[in-house]
Amino acid sequence: MRLADGPHVECEIEIAAPPERVWGLVSDIATSARHSPELQEVEWLDGAEGPAVGAYFSGRNRNAGLGEWHTVSRVAALEEQRTFRWEVVYYNDRSHGEPLAFWAYTLEPVTDGTGTRLQHGMRLGTARGPLQDFVEKYPEQEEQIIDGRLARLRTGIETTLAGVKAEAEA
Question: Distance between CA atoms of 31 and 22, rounded to whole angstroms?
Fold first, then answer.
């Protein structure tokens, strides 16, 4: 896959807990930080105390390949017990007009309402970030770089979903 192809990854899991229980976890930004191998820390900004469309939060991220970086995200969509979507709009010292990435949790009730199908995924935006910098440095390896990043993101998303499942079912 190449940057021009709109790289994305999405994973899903079934959780033996009702959507309202799962929603309480995924709409709390600290849950992702507890379970993600990459997202280390989050904090609401500008007086926000929880998710609302237009609210901003910061994130501190780290992995072996890219090192450590900071982001600012804006809540883009929020539909109680259905969708929590945010856009990464700032990376380290770069402010972007267009999002760097789009992330989302999507919930769907299953069976008799006692279970939830939870999807979590991301799609790269058009703003320039660390991945684009790396591809520019090694253009002949673009597909391998993108595939490697997507594989790492998939592993992280699967780990996060497993953590949400464990908390929701506890």
Answer: 11
Cα separation, 86 vs 105, in Å, equals: 9
Residues 28-84 have pLDDT tens digits of 999 999 999 999 999 999 999 999 999 999 999 998 877 888 999 999 999 999 999
* Whole-Å CA distances, 72 to 10, 13, 69, 82, 137: 21, 27, 10, 23, 25
Q: Facing residues of 91 across strands?
A: 71, 94
Domains defined for the chain, CATH in brackets: 3-169 (3.30.530.20)
> Cα-flanking dihedrals φ and ψ of residue 59, to 5°?
-140, 145
